[in-house]
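Customer escalation, tier 2.

The customer says the design service returned an amino acid string that "doesn't look like it belongs to this structure." They asked us to rerun it and document both sides in this ticket. The original structure tokens are below, unchanged.
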């Protein structure tokens, strides 16, 4: 049978038991981020289109080509969030969060949307886990943020990480470099692609992000951003790297790393993991000191990162202490009694008191009319360990019959004691 409806191109259904891994990753993020003083924020998936134009920048690929924007029924232009720094910044300003005491540390987890060409590791609906540290100029907080990120990735079993860092400098450093880069590229204008030619006018730094091999060759001889850093920017970057090193985080200078958004300043970074192929960037982040003021808020410095959760899961080997949850252990079957009797018994077994730490069993009950034999076969095929049978005689006697689906043995036990005989031992698996 072919399905009449399919999921939209570039989106995915996440199915059980893979969703269990997603939950564990997110629980680990919450645990690690809490330990560094971060609180969760959940902003809407829909924002005004203007917010992204202002925060992400007109000249970026995101705003230029990748946004899911549409008019609502009243003609307002809305956009499915392509990233979350804009929304978090908007919420920060709107709620006057500077009043909470600085720095404010926030993290988020959720779906994001970009109209990109789908391939492995690149989707139109994808998920990010991100954090923002607002109200501290760094450089020590830059190091702390990356330390937290590395700890989180280590907790997921990533050991082969590459941390790339760079400084895009303060405003004056970038202005000087922009001119130098423009002068260098101008004579080669005809060799540039359409996007890069436009960026030569609007924002030449963006050209450094190019994936085009010919443009990359050309850029190999371009002036380097680090030669244009002001003394303050250089000191900030040096102190940041010293702090990062002091925390034991190995990292590498990547002079061509500029990152896509307009408001990045000073520290920028990326982390990649082995085994992701072409889409190996797992995390991107950086300092965006001008953004909050641009959104009409206080002129506060900020730094953040976003992890691609889809890629994280693709690259991850689940830690050994994350067993896939086992199917329910117990199936309750009523024989010749009203269906509600098996419902009641199942609920009793789930909630029975047991010794601390043993945890109640997961229990299903038979709701269909099929034969006992078919039911038992089904229960065994679904990985149930026990069947608990209840008929008229058992109801009258206050007992149940516990059948071990592995050995076929069965015995009658007092109803109140049944749950105690249903604990799965480690050796059972
Ligand atoms: P960005 O917001 O572009 O800096 O992206 C941060 C991270 O999100 C990247 O390093 C990727 O891991 C992930 N990411 C970005 N775009 C996509 C996408 N279309 N599909 C899957 N992951 C993505």
């Amino acid at each position: 049978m072919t399905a009449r409806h399919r999921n939209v191109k570039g989106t995915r259904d996440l199915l059980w038991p893979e969703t269990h891994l997603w939950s564990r990753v997110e629980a680990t993020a919450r645990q690690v981020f809490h330990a560094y003083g971060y609180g969760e924020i959940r902003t809407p998936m829909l924002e005004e289109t203007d917010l992204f134009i202002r925060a992400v920048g007109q000249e970026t690929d995101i705003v230029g080509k990748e946004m899911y924007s549409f008019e609502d029924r009243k003609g307002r232009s809305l956009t499915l969030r392509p990233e979350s720094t804009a929304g978090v910044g908007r919420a920060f300003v709107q709620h006057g969060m500077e009043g909470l005491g600085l720095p404010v540390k926030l993290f988020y987890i959720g779906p994001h949307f970009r109209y990109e060409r789908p391939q492995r590791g690149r989707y139109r609906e994808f998920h990010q886990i991100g954090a923002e540290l607002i109200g501290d100029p760094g450089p020590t907080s830059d190091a702390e943020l990356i330390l937290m990120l590395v700890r989180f990735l280590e907790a997921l079993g990533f050991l082969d990480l590459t941390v790339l860092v760079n400084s895009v400098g303060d405003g004056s450093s970038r202005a000087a470099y922009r001119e130098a880069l423009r002068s260098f590229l101008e004579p080669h204008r005809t060799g540039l692609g359409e996007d890069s030619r436009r960026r030569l006018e609007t924002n030449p730094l963006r050209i450094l992000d190019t994936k085009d091999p010919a443009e990359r060759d050309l850029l190999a001889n371009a002036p380097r951003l680090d030669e244009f850093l002001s003394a303050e920017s250089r000191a900030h970057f040096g102190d940041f790297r010293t702090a990062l090193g002091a925390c034991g985080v190995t990292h590498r200078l990547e002079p061509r790393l500029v990152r896509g958004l307009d408001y990045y300043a000073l520290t920028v970074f990326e982390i990649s993991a082995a085994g992701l192929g072409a889409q190996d960037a797992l995390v991107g982040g950086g300092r965006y000191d001008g953004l909050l003021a641009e959104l009409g808020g206080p002129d506060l410095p900020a730094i953040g990162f976003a992890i691609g959760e889809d890629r994280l899961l693709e690259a991850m080997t689940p830690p050994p202490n994350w067993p896939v949850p086992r199917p329910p252990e117990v199936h309750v079957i009523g024989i010749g009694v009203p269906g509600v009797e098996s419902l009641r018994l199942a609920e009793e077994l789930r909630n029975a008191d047991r010794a601390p730490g043993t945890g109640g069993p997961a229990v299903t009950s038979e709701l269909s009319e099929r034969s006992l034999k078919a039911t038992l076969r089904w229960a065994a095929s679904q990985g149930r360990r026990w069947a608990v049978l209840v008929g008229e005689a058992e109801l009258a006697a206050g007992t149940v019959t516990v059948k071990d689906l592995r050995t076929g043995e069965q015995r009658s036990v007092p109803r109140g004691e049944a749950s105690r005989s249903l604990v799965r031992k480690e050796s059972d698996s």
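Tier 2 assessment: The sequence is consistent with the input. The mean pLDDT is 92. The longest strand covers residues 104-113. Sent an explanation to the customer and offered a walkthrough call.
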